[in-house]
Structures are given as C-alpha cells and as structure tokens.
Amino acid sequence: MEAVFKRPESLTDIPTHFCPGCHHGIIHRLVAECIDEFGIREKIIGVASVGCSVFLYDYFLIDVLEAPHGRAPAVATGVKRANPNAFVFTYQGDGDLAAIGTSEIIHAANRGEKLTVIFVNNTVFGMTGGQMAPTTLPDQETTTTPYGRDVETAGFPIRMAEIMERLDGTKFVARTAVNTPKNIIKSKKILRRAFEVQLNNEGFAFVEFLSSCPTNWKMNAQKANQRIQDVMIPYFPLNIFKGALN
Amino acid sequence: MEAVFKRPESLTDIPTHFCPGCHHGIIHRLVAECIDEFGIREKIIGVASVGCSVFLYDYFLIDVLEAPHGRAPAVATGVKRANPNAFVFTYQGDGDLAAIGTSEIIHAANRGEKLTVIFVNNTVFGMTGGQMAPTTLPDQETTTTPYGRDVETAGFPIRMAEIMERLDGTKFVARTAVNTPKNIIKSKKILRRAFEVQLNNEGFAFVEFLSSCPTNWKMNAQKANQRIQDVMIPYFPLNIFKGALN
Amino acid sequence: MAKIEINTERCKGCGLCVTVCSQKRLFIGETINRSGYTVVQQTDDSDTCTGCAFCAQICPDVVFTVYK
Amino acid sequence: MAKIEINTERCKGCGLCVTVCSQKRLFIGETINRSGYTVVQQTDDSDTCTGCAFCAQICPDVVFTVYK
Amino acid sequence: MYFDCIISGFGGQGVMLAGNILAYAGMCENKNVTYMPVYGVEMRGGTANCTVVISDKEIGSPIIQKPICSIVMNRPSLEKFGPRVKQNGILIVNASLIPKEDVNFPNVECIMVPARELAMEIGNEKLLNMIILGATVQKTKVVSMDSLIGSLPSALDPRYHHLIDINVEALQQGAAFIDQH
Amino acid sequence: MYFDCIISGFGGQGVMLAGNILAYAGMCENKNVTYMPVYGVEMRGGTANCTVVISDKEIGSPIIQKPICSIVMNRPSLEKFGPRVKQNGILIVNASLIPKEDVNFPNVECIMVPARELAMEIGNEKLLNMIILGATVQKTKVVSMDSLIGSLPSALDPRYHHLIDINVEALQQGAAFIDQH
Amino acid sequence: MTDIELVKGNESIAMGAIEAGCRFYFGYPITPQNDIPEYMSRHLPKCGGVFIQAESEIASINMLMGAGATGARAMTSSSSPGISLKQEGISYMCGSQIPGVIVNMSRSGPGLGGISPSQGDYFQATRGGGHGDYRTIVLAPSSVQENYDLTMHAFDLADKYRNPVIILGDALLGNIKEPLRRHKYIPKTFEKNWILTGAQGRSPRRLKSLYLSEGELTEHNWMLHRNYQEMTKEILYETQWMDDAKLVVVAFGSVARIIKTSVSMAREQGMAVGLFRPITLYPFPYKQLLDISETIHHFMAVELNTGQMVEDVKLSVGHRKNRVDFYGRPPGSIPSPDELFEEIQKVYCLP
Amino acid sequence: MTDIELVKGNESIAMGAIEAGCRFYFGYPITPQNDIPEYMSRHLPKCGGVFIQAESEIASINMLMGAGATGARAMTSSSSPGISLKQEGISYMCGSQIPGVIVNMSRSGPGLGGISPSQGDYFQATRGGGHGDYRTIVLAPSSVQENYDLTMHAFDLADKYRNPVIILGDALLGNIKEPLRRHKYIPKTFEKNWILTGAQGRSPRRLKSLYLSEGELTEHNWMLHRNYQEMTKEILYETQWMDDAKLVVVAFGSVARIIKTSVSMAREQGMAVGLFRPITLYPFPYKQLLDISETIHHFMAVELNTGQMVEDVKLSVGHRKNRVDFYGRPPGSIPSPDELFEEIQKVYCLP
Ligand SMILES: Cc1ncc(C[n+]2csc(CCOP(=O)(O)OP(=O)(O)O)c2C)c(N)n1
Ligand SMILES: Cc1ncc(C[n+]2csc(CCOP(=O)(O)OP(=O)(O)O)c2C)c(N)n1
Ligand code: SF4
Ligand code: SF4
Ligand code: SF4
Ligand code: SF4
Ligand code: SF4
Ligand code: SF4
Ligand SMILES: [Mg+2]
Ligand SMILES: [Mg+2]
Hints:
The complex is a heterooctamer, with two copies of chain A, two copies of chain C, two copies of chain E and two copies of chain G.
Chain A: E1 3-5, H1 24-38, E2 44-48, H2 56-59, E3 63-66, H3 72-82, E4 87-93, H4 94-100, H5 102-110, E5 116-121, E6 124-125, E7 131-132, H6 151-154, H7 160-166, E8 170-177, H8 181-199, E9 204-210, H9 214-217, H10 221-235, E10 239-242
Parallel strand pairs in A: 2-3, 2-4, 4-5, 5-9, 8-9
Antiparallel strand pairs in A: 6-7, 8-10
Helix pairs in contact in A: 1-8, 3-5, 4-5
Chain C: E1 3-6, H1 16-20, E2 26-32, E3 38-42, H2 54-58, E4 64-67
Chain G: E1 4-8, H1 9-19, E2 24-27, H2 35-43, E3 50-53, H3 57-69, E4 74-78, H4 80-85, H5 87-96, E5 100-106, H6 122-127, E6 137-139, H7 144-161, E7 164-170, H8 171-175, E8 177-181, E9 206-207, H9 216-230, E10 237-240, E11 247-250, H10 253-268, E12 273-278, E13 280-282, H11 286-292, E14 298-303, H12 309-317, E15 323-328, H13 337-348
Parallel strand pairs in G: 2-3, 2-4, 4-5, 5-7, 6-7, 11-12, 11-14, 14-15
Antiparallel strand pairs in G: 1-8, 6-13, 10-12
C-alpha cells in the first residue's frame, strides 16, 4: 500500500499551539503541501505576522522573518525587492491585515508586488483574546463588543477580497473556506494557483481563507465549522474574484 | 444692482498662499459657500490636514484643529463622537488621504462616522515639492518618478472614490472637478449634498475633487485645467458613486 | 445690465478668468500689485458684461464681485 | 483496501475527523495523550476504511497518514 | 500572619478560579491579599498558574519563587512547582492524575487528594478544583472554611450562582478528606 | 580672506541661482564656501533668500545675521535685509523695483543697479539676477570675473547650457555698470 | 462605593477613568492590557460614553486628540509596541496643548519581545519618544489602589496643564488582583477657554502645532518649557525606612513592590536600608532625592531593564561624594524578592 | 571621483549611500530631506538598485527591515515626525538584529512644528524613542563632507553590529551646499551567516524578536546589551582649541559649526575657550569628556533645543568639582555666531 496522504515535508514535527479544531492548522498544512509540490522549500522566505500564526517559524522548515503587527506586506516588499528570486509569502490574520495593516496591504497590492498573501479571516483577534476584528459579523459578541457588534457605531464587517479586486495591481484574488473536505480540496487548488502567480512572475496573489476560532467563538470545533457554512459564507461569499484557476 | 456673486462670509480676508491658478482656492470658496448657505459657521469644527491646505485656519472663520499627516479622519472621529452636534469636516490631499492616511480614511468610512470628507486629488504631493502621490498618473513625471511613473514598480493610480463606494459605511460618494465653470457649479451641488448627509445625520459623505497643481505639473493654470479635462477625467471618471443629489 | 468688481490686490494673474469670460472682456495687463503679480483688468465697455459670473466661479482667489 | 495511521500524540480531540468520516469508523474514546487531550481512535473493522482521506484533509493537526 | 501559594494545572482545570476564591476569602478576613495569574502567550491549552499571597502586613511581591504552599493539578505542574516549595512547606497534589510514587520532596508535606474521584462522588468532575481548594484550606487554615464559602457569591460570575451550592459541597468534601486522613 | 552675503528677492527672480554661481566661483578659486538657501514652507511665491560665505579658513556658521554684503532684489527684501548689513558693508539694490529715496542706510555703501533695464538691453528681463551678480562681484572683488564666468557650466543645469553665452553677457553688463559708475 | 472589591489591575484603571468623568475611550487590543478596552466596552455605553475599538494605535491616539480638543475627558491605552506607534500623536498633542490620558501597561521589548512585565519604556515615557522638545507627566502606580487613584489624578493633571499624561504600568500591575476601595471623584474645575465647540458668539479658535514665522516656534517652545517647569509642583514619591538608612534603594512601579519585600528582609537582618519610590517619573523627584543625599550617600537604582531611571538618579545625586549602584533585570524573567535581597547585600557594604 | 563639487547636504548623503553599496531605498517625502529620495529615485535605477516611495514612513521602515533581513544594504530617510512613526520598526530591527541605515534630517517640533533646523530629536535618537531596551548608533555629521563620509561609515557599522544606525542631521545640514570630494568606498566584508535567502543546503533561519520561554528574552536582552557595550569602540569626536582651555563648549551637528565661529571670536578676544564636538551621539564620548575634566572643569553644552545632550554631558562630567552650563535655543530661529559668542561670554567668568 502506498501513502496517499502524509505529512508534508516542509512541516516540522512540532505539535502546534493552536486550539483544538482551529483552522490555522489546516491552512498551514495546505501551504506546506504547496511548498512541497512546487519544490520551493529552499527558495522560500516566509513573513510571519503577529496573531495566532506568529509561530510560523516553528512549524515550517523554511527561512522566516517576523514582521511587526500589520506590516508583513511592507516587510515582504523589502524582502522580495532585495531578493527577487526568492518566493515570498505573508500569512496574516484579519486583525493584522484588515485593521492595523490596512494601508500596507492595500499599497503592496496596488504596487503589484510579486507576493503571495495568505489572509486568515476568523472574524476575531484570536491571539489577544477574542476582541472585535474588522471582519466581525453584525451582532457578533466579542470581548470588545459585549452587546454584539453594532454596525451603526462599530462599523461593518469589511470584505477585503472585494477591495483587493478593485485594485489594478492585483493579479489573483480569491476567497475560500476549509470547513469541509470539499472546500479544503478546492482551497488547495486556489492556493496552488496563488503560488503559481508568483512563480510565473505574474504579480500579486491574495487568498482569503474563512477560518474558525472555536475558542473565541465559544463553541466546539464542529459548531464552528457549521458557523462558517451558515453565517460566514453568506456574508463573505466564496469566489475567485480575479484571475482564474487555469 | 444686486451682488449675485460675492465673497462668502466664512472666508477671512487674508490672501491665500496658494500658487496662481491652484484649485485649492476654488474648493475653499465652495466649502465656505456651503457653510454660509447652511448657516452653520458657528457649529463647525474643521479638521485640517498636512498638505498645501494646512492653513485652513487662516482662511476660514471657524474653529479648526490641525491633524497629523494622514490622520484627519481619526481626529475628526474623536471630535464628532465627543461633540455630535458639531458639523465636522476634513479637508485632505491625495498624499494625506490616499498614502499615509489610507487606513484612517477606510476605517472612518467603514464605521460610517458622520463626517464630510473633502478629498483634493491633484496627483502629486504639492506641499513637499511635487513628489509622486498614490494618484499620480501612469508615466507622469514627478520629482520622485523622474522617468515617469512606472506602474510596474511604482503601482497604479489609486481610485479612492471607487474604494469608498465599496464600503458599507459610506452614504454619499462622488468625484467631481472644478476646471470649468460648469464643473464648478456641478461641484457645488455635490458638495451641498455632502453637507446635507451629515446635517441630516445620514452618515459618511466623501467628495473627491480633481484639482490642479500648476506649480508641480510645471504648466500654467490654463494648461493645468486642460490636463484635468484631457488626462485626469478619463482615468478618474466624474460620477456620483453612491447616494444621489436628491 | 451687469457689472463686476475686481479686487486686484488678491489677483495672482493666473489668467483663468480671462479664458472663461464669454465676452472676452478680461485681460492681463501691465499692472503689478503689491505682491508682485501682474493682475487682471477689464475692458472699458462695461455694458458688455452679462453677469454670468464665470470669471468669479473659476477664480481661485475670489477676486470678483458680480452685480446684476 | 485502505488504511489509516493515527499519530495520537498530535491529536487534540477536536472531533472534526469523526464528523467527516463517511464510514463512521472514527470516535473519541477514553484515551488521554501526554498533552492531556482525549484522542481519536478508529474502530477495529479496518477493512471498512475507503481511504477517502476526508479525515486527513480536515484534521488541523495532521494526525493521519492514509494508505491505499 | 503570612501565607503564599502557587496553584497550577492544565488550562481547563479551574486553577484561576480556585486562586480567586482563595484571595477573596483572605480579603473577607480583612487581610491584605494579592492574586497574580500567569498565562502563556496563547490564550489556549498549555499550563496555567497563579500565585496568591495573604498577609496581615502590606504585601510587597505578588510573585513568589519559593511558596509556602503549592497546589499541583497535573504532572507538568508537579515537575515545575513541586521542587520549589519551601522547606517544611505543603504540597497539595491532584492524586487523580499524579501517582504517589512520583511525589517525593524531602522536608515537604505532600498531601495526595484524589480530587477527580471525590468530585465524581458529588457528580461533576469539573469540581475537582473546589475539592482541592477545600482540602488546602482545611490543611493550612489560612482562612476559615466559612470565609471560603462566604466568598463564593462574590468570586463567582453571577452566571454561575446557581452552582454555588454544589461548589460549597465540593469545598466541604475536600475539607472532609483532610479531616479523614 | 572672508566674505559673506545675503541675496534676497521674489521667488522667480533667480536669487538661488545667483547664490549658487557665486559659491561655485568661490570654490573654483579653492576657497571654502557655503551656500545656504532659505525657503518658506510653501514651495511657491513669497520671498526667497540665500546666504553665501566665501573664506580661506574653515567656515563655521553658514547663516549670517549681519552680512558684509547684501543684494536685495525687491522691496520686502530691502526692508528685511537692508538694515542688517554690517557697518561699512555694501548693499546692492535692484533699482528697477526700488526707488533710490527708500534706500538709506548710514555707513553702508548702497549701489543702485537698474537691473531690469540693463537686462532688457540684452533682450531678456530674466537675466536681471546675472546683471546684479556681475555688479556685485565687480564691486566686491570677492572672486574674479573669470572664475564667475568659468563656473557657469557647472552651476547651470545642462538643460540651460545653450544660455551660457547670454548669461556671460549679462554678468559682464553688470560689471560694466559698476565700472561706469 | 466604599465597599472593598478584589479587582484586576487593568480594570482598576478603567474604573478610575470612568469615575473621573472619562466618557471617551479609543484603543486597539494588545496584551497585557486588554481588560481596559474590554471593561470600557462594557461600561461606557451604560453611562452615555463612547467606546471605539480603533483600527490601530495610531488612529486611537488621534481620536484621543480629537476628543480632547473638544474638552472631553478621554483616554487611550496600549502596551509597549502600540505606545511606540503613538509617539507622533503624543508629540502633536503636546505641541497643540491638547490634554488626554495615555496608559502604557508595558511589556517586554524590544520588538515583539514578550508579554511579561518590563520597565524598558522608561526613557520613552520620560524623555518623549517622539520628536521635539516635549514632555508628558508620567505617573507610575505600584498597586491596584494606586492604579485607580492615579488614573483619576491623571485626568486632573492633563486638564490643569493642557498636556497628555502617561500612566506607566506594566504586565504585573495589569494582571494582579488586589483589594480596591473605590471612592467618589472630587470634581475639579478647569477653565477650558481654548476648546473647539464651533465658533458660536466668539472668534474662531484653532488648535495646532505649526508655527512658521521667525521666532514664533521658539517662543512657543519656551512657553511649553515653562509649563513643564510648573509641573515640578506635582512631584510625588514614597519613602520607607529612611530614618537611619545607609543605603537607599530607588525603584518604581512593579519592581518597587517586589523590592519592598527584599528591603524588609534586609531590615530583618539589621541592614540599614531605605526605599525611595518615585511616583511621578516625569517630573522626576531630583530635588527630593538630592535632599536625602545630604545625609545618605549610597543609592541603588533597581529596574526591570538594563538601566534607564538610573540616569535620573545619577543626574540627581551622582555628584558630591555619593555612590550610585545599579541592578537591572531586563524583561523575560522577574527577579524574586530573594534575588533582589542578595543584590542589596552585595552592594550594601561597598564604600 | 576626486573632483570637487558643490553639493547639497541631503544629496551628499544619498551619494555616500550609493557609493557604499546601498541599492535599496525606501522613503516617504517630508521636508527638509526630499532631495534624498529624489536623488535616489534618479540614480538607483541606473545602478541596478530599487527606489520605492512607500505609502508611509511606517511602510518604509518595514521595507528596510525586509531588505536588511536578506543582507542587502538599504536605507530610509525622513525628518522628525516621520521618524517618530518609525520607532516601532526600529525597535523591531534592533530586537531582530537586522541592520539598516536611517537618516533623520530633523526639523522643528513638537508636532508639525516647522521646517527649520532643530536638535530636538536627540533623546529620541540616543535613548531609543521606541519601546524596550535598545539603542542605535547615532552619527551626527556637521558638514557636507561628513554627511557623505559618515553615511558610508554608517553602512559598515550597521553590518558590523547587526543593528540599525541613525544619521542625525537637520534642516541646516540638509539644505546647505558645500564643496564635496567624493571618493571610492573601501569595501569591508562582514560575515552574514544570518541572512534570509531561502534555506538552501542549510537549516532554516529565522529573524525575530519574540522570545517567550522563561529567561530567554532576558538573555537576549543581555546579549544586545553586550553588543551596545562593544559599540563604545566606535566613539568619534572632534576637539579644537583645547590645550589651554578654561571653558569647553560641547555641541554637535549644525550648532557645533555655528558655535565654532563664536569660539574663534572668543579666542580672538583672548578667551581660553575650547570646543568638543561629539560625532557619535550614541555611544556618547562619556569617557573622553571625563578625561578632559581632569584639567578643565568648566563645560557649556549648547543645543538647538531646551536641553537634551546636556544630560549626557552632566552624566559624564557633572560630578567632581566641575561646572556644567547650558545654553539652549529651541527651534524656530537659529542663533547667530554673535549671539552664541555673547552666551559664551556670559558663562566664561562664572566660578
Ligand atoms: C502594534 C501592535 N498592536 C497590537 C498588538 C497585539 N496583537 C497581537 S496579535 C493581534 C491581533 C490578532 O488577530 P488576527 O490578526 O486576526 O490573528 P488571529 O490571532 O485571529 O489569527 C493583536 C492586536 C501587537 N502585537 N502589536
Ligand atoms: C508624518 C509626516 N510625513 C510626511 C510629512 C510631509 N508632508 C507634508 S504635506 C505632504 C503631502 C502633501 O500632499 P497632499 O496631501 O497631496 O496635499 P497637496 O499639498 O498636494 O494639496 C507630506 C508628505 C509630514 N508632515 N508628516
Ligand atoms: S485562539 Fe482561535 S485562532 Fe487562535 S489558535 Fe485558538 S482557535 Fe485558533
Ligand atoms: S503647490 Fe500645487 S497644490 Fe500646492 S498651492 Fe501650489 S499649485 Fe496648489
Ligand atoms: S460676469 Fe461673465 S461676462 Fe462679466 S466679466 Fe465675468 S465672465 Fe465676463
Ligand atoms: S482668475 Fe482670479 S487670480 Fe486668476 S487672473 Fe483672474 S482674477 Fe486674477
Ligand atoms: S480515510 Fe476516509 S474512511 Fe478512512 S478513516 Fe479517514 S475518513 Fe474514514
Ligand atoms: S481532527 Fe485531528 S485533532 Fe481533531 S480529533 Fe481528529 S485526529 Fe484529533
Ligand atoms: Mg483573526
Ligand atoms: Mg496632492
């Protein structure tokens, strides 16, 4: 018998610090598979952001630079411009990318930097204890919206993929989810394409993952997956907004 | 005979420091006329930004607060939330609003702050001597794009009104120009509407003015006006993107 | 019947009003104001002014008052 | 014929694999691993596994290896 | 009067709540108290511990290197905090997860409390922290059982006030265990 | 040898260029030189001025409160910088914009140069800065006219090199004016 | 309101703020101070206030500036990296003379560092980490009660001097729970004839920091400087065991309370050690320390960093025949009272 | 390349950078340093380099961090408010040990202030305006030639110590034109076994500043601290007229050259005044100044601010029987040599 599914080689063997059922683990694995499949482990420089995924460097067998909160796209711009042969990606949460880092992501995208951006939208600030994120859904309770997010005063959940689509500098923009095996398989295809866009020197690629945070949503892993299906996807439609799978 | 056109009362009598032919002067006058017409001079708090328009407080007979470069929307948020009965506007250049202040404008808009934002897009950093702005047109020569803006490396001119349109928090979004009497009269209507949106407590209003900078475009005032018509408007279409004139 | 008043001390001689006056009754002459700008002037034929206020609309320095 | 291997030391007992296994051959039992998690186990009927790898796809902790 | 104590265990074992209640009880007896939690970066999993100091003088450091008393609820905690207990101090051990033979610290009185089993007797495994807390207080007499019980309404979130009775029972069960051994 | 000079005027009058050329000429004579521009915030309109220091010793301050020499090209400059000239210093005045009767500073030698008129003679009003510069150098002898002329290719942007001849002419015209008066 | 409660340090700050009339809070989450925004988000709406979770620390400080400009009592809080991002805004607030309260529950640096207690932001807080010659009053509490009391005080000082006030705590003071006695705020009134409210029946006002005419900014800076000199009136500090002391330990904030235990250990061993705790870090009690050095000549600065406040101690008493020793523990671990006691022992007998 | 040119201060920095191998520049316009990005935008493309006008100062410093992480020589420049915004990034670069050159052609503060010369950013530069215990080497040129030479030197120091280096100039040093002799950069080689290039044939590397295990960050901070101690080897300063001096004027950067004229005036009047000009502001020449105080006991610090470097002078010589006077001129006007001469006269005869 042959192994049809095994641990990607770009992943270290360290157990992650993620909570049970957290999608960061799945997304990490998909990224590692892409690295393996394109055979680029030795030419990658990853840019970690500040959020639950900050320990990227513990989990991937690749060179990693830790960016200040929100600034990964600027840091990655410096890395890629100085080292154009490297494959450079950022991995950012919704607090990181859509709150403090709004300016950096928009302008890196607008400059068409040859980067692959992995955006993990779990509608909360996971690492800091479940505060409101720019993507928190209307009426969602978080530790800083104890009465539910009131869109009148706290603003609307922001749809980053749609904003990315509007920028002339982006080549590939998609939103996907990993809450079911089917969506995971689809996500893999999308992520592969986002890798290719950089590998072919085509330009800037952006993939938004809808991701669960059972801990801060205060539900178990299954319910969290269901919430993605029932509540998140209707608000954040899955789509390839720009570019195609080929 | 009756004066059918005269200096608005909200304007001080100080000569401006603007260069000959600069549209900041026209836009200032339109703002002053709206203030007069709505009779709100005594309930306005203006938020000046850093750019050629920083001396707002010298030219308007109103209370003014000077914000750090790019941060006027955040400053104005603080002002308006603490003083909801005041009429609060920001007046910002394209360097201020679309470069350093990207994050602040997007999130103030997304929160639906009850503010009126006057955005003056002249495709350069005027005050600092004509460097590239996020809105600089492809191939446009500036002091930091001496060989013309190369969109491949320096990015694409960013269309702020279109991005504002995408945000759920905005109520009124328009782009206009003041290069001809006709456009000026149209602009006035748009600006009045942007005032009303706040006065009626409807929400966030955003008006982008295409504006000339004869000095840094290195052309005379007439040619500059012509450039707006021939080059800028095709790239930055005039439109009411969201809301209507009523 | 209309007429305009020009506050030449504010004029910066940009010439925009000249280009928009349908009656072509504005021109940049020789007069220099205190700030050193060569300022706009109107022709003597005051009855040709239509009071359209195009000049006033486009003037960035609010130099004109228009009467009708 | 297919089979799976479970690296229970990595398992966090989230139960996601249990919900997706079409053969319902995974369950959370009583076993606790070194990190204190109650881990997943498979039923003895090893021949029922189809090797669909749904479990492996959804597991956030890369606990499974699937053979076919 | 001076007492300090480090309480440690897994994330979900109620370490923090136990510390809070103990501190509350001290405060109710008009003592000076400090309660100091320590988390990892992650807000999840891993071990958690907190330090409680109770004194009738002003309390300087709320962080204690070598406590008079230590409660360890799982093995990693035993390994980390067991050796730190002061000479002649007390170590309260969750015997449900830690076998007696691993608990071996000279000049420290080690009390093995089968907390899970005792909690199950009351019908809820989750009460193991209360069992241990009851045992600790009964053993050390740092506060009275009355104060401990009396502080529950203040220390527990109102959402859980319907559970006060069962918590009281668990505290008493823990205390009883000490009396019996 | 030590010389310093403030050159001032309207934005478009070529104040900065004149200062640059003078500094360049000093450098070509192996002197230490500094050139220091002062603008308003605005990059437009308003008055502009610059300070040039030429010395055969190391130059400390490039900013001078009371210059040995001052060139004023318009009235606001006269008002600001006229009174600052050192005792027994020299004031070079653009007589085309400033009437003689307004120029009255005791113990300062005031030279009235009808710069615009002289420039018009050569056919270009814009050369008035060169007229004045030529006059200044001829008057002060701070550098030789040869050095001044020789520095034009370096001081002027290559875009304007076709204008070198006419600039030379203007410098000489200015110098000639001094010789004649 | 005089009941005693067991309260977390961060929350005591939020409570003090609301009691002092703070109705506007702008912040961005960062460990270890998240209880502050979380408390504010729960309680401000109940008392007619506004809580905004801003998109960043920069937006927060600028919102604070906006609210402060209208005369409102407003606050922002963050921790070290977030405070670094606020430096430009703080400089603007000082330059424009707009009051506001800024809480830094500092954590370990540099960079992302860690979330444990640290005093590595002393220089930033006391010397103005932003550009230009500005200062902010810096209050350094060392207990939950002081968190509460000094926060109230901070609002008064901010209004009195028209200047931002920083509360410099750290992860220890944010996470600790201690008994707190809340009490009513005694309102102080400040004439606010500078606030922006719309120019109704008066001439327009401007709040700005740009001064371009020759000499104008120089004058503005001297005016600010005089204001900073005035602030020396507000100096606060605590001393203990000073009477017969031969060695004075100088420490602030969290480490001051750890070392209080060590000093009492030293006293038990018969060592003549005293404790001097600056409560205002700016203005620093230079003179007060100097006065002490009339009779005591040996000082020991102790900090959770590699040496910052020690410079102020030296600037104060580092002349005459005094001796200034230093023990620093950079963040990432916390010294225990025993360790600090040993350090005291080491220097105690030095000449 | 040894021809002499008349060059603007800002441009001399850009020239020095390119000559030293800087091929990456990231910046955001701000007066009075725009000639630097403008020069870079013209010349970097010609030598295979990259110029990016970033969307902000924050993006710039982070791009610098990214480029530096790959081992490239890179630079950013700005002026005071922009430098305030970079403080978080600088703290991260120090924490992650990533080199880079940061130019601050400072302007008047606080806030928007003005565009005239100022030395109000001394504390920020020398004490680390960001959070945590970090330092950067600070070089303070005082002529166009030094702008050029010290910029080259800055790149070497950054690589040598794996730490950012700040060049602290101001509007005067940016706008002045002076003769410049360009010369070839003498390449120095630094083993860069830490750079990120992709983990080809080696184990993966990480550059980070987060250290969470107990004690790890403490150790990391001590390691950085030792690196900072090492930097004292790099101290640079200039002295003039010291032999028989009774009063030593201490000044740096732009004001040092203005006061040089004043000191020479004093000498002409027979006053025994010397000049001490620190060139490295961090590390500050504490010891060098202290050595001088063996024989000279009167010092006068002069700055374009209300008093910052004077603290370092006091920390160095403010004990024994020394006297330290101070003259400060906050930005908004520039003291003339005559004014400073008068100030020297005033203190010269003080005891
Ligand atoms: C400048 C700065 N501000 C704030 C923080 C605190 N912080 C750390 S992670 C984080 C947000 C994490 O949320 P997200 O990016 O959505 O990632 P997640 O943990 O949800 O995956 C914040 C605010 C910080 N480290 N630095
Ligand atoms: C933090 C900061 N960065 C940079 C500057 C310098 N600066 C002043 S105005 C300006 C840009 C002005 O351009 P714009 O906003 O387009 O206004 P305009 O002058 O064109 O009307 C810049 C970069 C500053 N004052 N503060
Ligand atoms: S807090 Fe949320 S995002 Fe972070 S690891 Fe846990 S589940 Fe995942
Ligand atoms: S520089 Fe441009 S924008 Fe500024 S005043 Fe002049 S013309 Fe207007
Ligand atoms: S009002 Fe009309 S007609 Fe009269 S001067 Fe103006 S533009 Fe000409
Ligand atoms: S438009 Fe106004 S400023 Fe321009 S020339 Fe006419 S009157 Fe003068
Ligand atoms: S491979 Fe498929 S059938 Fe086999 S255990 Fe996994 S999910 Fe179940
Ligand atoms: S999905 Fe993975 S971690 Fe979750 S229970 Fe199954 S094997 Fe364990
Ligand atoms: Mg998130
Ligand atoms: Mg602009």
